[in-house]
Amino acid sequence: MAARLLLRSAFRAAKTCRAAPVPALTRGMAAGGIPTDEEQATGMERIIMKAMQEGSDPYNMMKPKEYAGSKVDPHLVPSITNKRIVGCVCEEDNTAVVWFWLHQGEAQRCPSCGSHYQLVAHELPH
C-alpha cells in the first residue's frame, strides 16, 4: 500500500513539474575552448616558440645542418665568444673524439681527418 502511494505521488509530481532542459555539454573555456600551447605560453617559452615558428633555433635544440666540411663549405660552429672547443669524430664508426680549439676567423682543419670548421657569432635571445 505504501508503495502505491509513493508511486502515485511521484507520478503526480512528474505531471505537474516540468524539468528544465539540460544544456548541451560545452568546452571548458567560455571564450571558445581550451587554449592552445601558443596562447598559454609566456616568458622564455613564448620567445622560443616564436623563434621556432620563424625558422631560427635560439638554443640549438634541433639537429645542426650538415655541411661538406671542405674549405669552401666548412662546418659552422656557433659561439658567443671568440673561441670554442670542438670535438670531431673523424670516421663514422670511430669511438675516439679528436678535440681541438677553434678560433674566430678563417676556417680551420681538424688535425686528424682534415675536415674544416669555422666559428660564427651567435647571440643569445635574452
Automatic annotation (TrEMBL):
Sorted UniProt keywords: Acetylation, Membrane, Metal-binding, Mitochondrion, Mitochondrion inner membrane, Transit peptide, Zinc
GO cellular component, one term: respiratory chain complex IV
Subcellular location field: Mitochondrion inner membrane
An example Gene Ontology molecular-function term: metal ion binding
One family name in Pfam for this protein: COX5B
Binding site for Zn(2+): 88, 90, 110, 113
Signal peptide: none
Biological process annotations from GO: mitochondrial electron transport, cytochrome c to oxygen
Keyword Acetylation set for record: yes
Taxonomic superkingdom: Eukaryota
Keyword flag rRNA processing: no
PANTHER family for the chain: CYTOCHROME C OXIDASE SUBUNIT 5B, MITOCHONDRIAL
Name of the protein in its database record: Cytochrome c oxidase subunit 5B, mitochondrial
Organism: Sparus aurata
Gene: COX5B
